[in-house]
Design goal:
mainly alpha
Length: 90
C-alpha cells in the first residue's frame, strides 16, 4: 500500500502542525523566522550598498553573518562592518 517513506513524511507533517499550534513552540519558531527575515533584509541592503560602493572600490562581503549584522543592527551594524573592512581587512 503506502511505502514507509510516505508514512514518515505524514508523521513529520503532523508533528509540524502540532508544533505550529502549540504556544510553547510557536515563540521560538517566531524568533527563527525573524532571524531569517533580518538576514535577508541585511543581504539586500548590502547588495545595494555594493552596487554603489564598487564605483569607489569599497565592497562588503555578503554572507549570512554580515547580512544578519546589518539586518538586526541597522545603520550601526553597517558602520561596524565599515570599520572592520577599513581597519582590519585592508
Amino acid at each position: 500500500m503506502f511505502q514507509l517513506e510516505y508514512w514518515i513524511w505524514i508523521a513529520l507533517a503532523g508533528i509540524g502542525i502540532l508544533m505550529l499550534l502549540s504556544k510553547s513552540v510557536r515563540k521560538p519558531l517566531q524568533y527563527v523566522w525573524y532571524g531569517i527575515l533580518y538576514s535577508a533584509t541585511g543581504a539586500i541592503i548590502l547588495f545595494l550598498i555594493n552596487l554603489v560602493g564598487k564605483n569607489f572600490g569599497f565592497e562588503f562581503a555578503i554572507n549570512p553573518i554580515t547580512g544578519f549584522i546589518v539586518g538586526f543592527l541597522g545603520l550601526p551594524g553597517m558602520g561596524y562592518l565599515a570599520v572592520v573592512e577599513v581597519f582590519l581587512l585592508h
